Amino acid sequence: MTRLPDFRLETYFSRWEFTARHHLTASDAQSMSLGDLLALADDDDRAAFENLSLGYTTTYGDPALREAVAQTYDKVDAADVLCFAGAEEALYLAMNVLLDAGDHAVVVTPNYQAAETVPLALCEVTGVALDPGDDWALDLDQIRAAIRPNTRVVSVNFPNNPTGKVVDAADFAELARICDEHGVHLFSDEVYRGLERDPARTLPQAADLSERALSLNVTSKALGLPGLRIGWLACRDRALLARLERAKHYTTICNSAPSEVLARIALKARTPILARNRALIARNVPVFDAFFAEFPDLFEWRAPDGGCVAYPRYLGPDGVEEFCTRLVDEAGVLLLPASIYRSELTPTPADRFRIGVGRAAPEEGLAAFRTWLRRER
């Protein structure tokens, strides 16, 4: 196994995620019960779940699930889909298949830590930072300048975790074109796709834009079903997909059979599920707007373009690390401080924290947050 650093986010969550009274930094949309999901199934899928044989499944993934995944793309067939145990396995194996010691990768920051640390464990990596002073803009000229003759991968994530940024569709298409021009694989983390506050800003999927590109997605985030642990990569380069399938033989081998059936039910019902989750975020954002408006001297707040996390700025003199530590210790309100998202590749803001806007009824947590802030004053 590649030697990797401590996974800061998961280590922090292992301490606080299930012990803090108010989880205000959740990165997934509100989940549903097994019964509620099964109620969305057609008769065939419900029967398939109830009569399921609990044996091994195929490494590529249940054929019906792969077909359901392919239906979410414009140019992807079921044969262009490989399923994994969540998005992290897919990311880890993709980087290990695409990158060797003499290679180079470009990674956009800030990001989910593994998007940076896994490539860094394999080869030289150049970071390109979203600009916090310009609405987290992506500078395509910086991407062009970072690409070298030995660059194999450009890794991006939109809607972005933790900022909620969605770039313009024209810029995303140009990014895919730049990668193709240089013979580079665009690795696109699209796990929040479908939760854009303005649906007109939904980006095309990388695997539809380029035969070389890889689109990463999962049931965990936009669909709000992390307990299923089902993710996938879509890529029209089937030789590359075959290499990824062989790499999976060394990790999970195959996915959970019940989870695959439940995932295909969710994907077939994605339209009402995503509509429910977008409506929940649309309801919550004004609640967060009003909360942060009460404390303009302490916070600089901007709602996300897409996804269900935002990355506000903390203006207090004590600094965001002490602020987040005291908040969870004294009020039981969990946020993620900027240190979780620090990068080895680029300067990253040290005064931010991640907050989630996709869970039901955030008012109780915000009330505890508000009470603590007022007491501190």
UniProtKB/TrEMBL annotation:
<dbReference type="GO" id="GO:0030170">
    <property type="term" value="F:pyridoxal phosphate binding"/>
</dbReference>
<dbReference type="GO" id="GO:0008483">
    <property type="term" value="F:transaminase activity"/>
</dbReference>
<dbReference type="InterPro" id="IPR015424">
    <property type="entry name" value="PyrdxlP-dep_Trfase"/>
</dbReference>
<dbReference type="Pfam" id="PF00155">
    <property type="entry name" value="Aminotran_1_2"/>
</dbReference>
<keyword id="KW-0808">Transferase</keyword>
<protein>
    <submittedName>
        <fullName>Pyridoxal phosphate-dependent aminotransferase</fullName>
    </submittedName>
</protein>
<dbReference type="InterPro" id="IPR015422">
    <property type="entry name" value="PyrdxlP-dep_Trfase_small"/>
</dbReference>
<dbReference type="InterPro" id="IPR004839">
    <property type="entry name" value="Aminotransferase_I/II_large"/>
</dbReference>
<feature type="domain" description="Aminotransferase class I/classII large">
    <location>
        <begin position="54"/>
        <end position="357"/>
    </location>
</feature>
<keyword id="KW-0032">Aminotransferase</keyword>
<dbReference type="InterPro" id="IPR015421">
    <property type="entry name" value="PyrdxlP-dep_Trfase_major"/>
</dbReference>
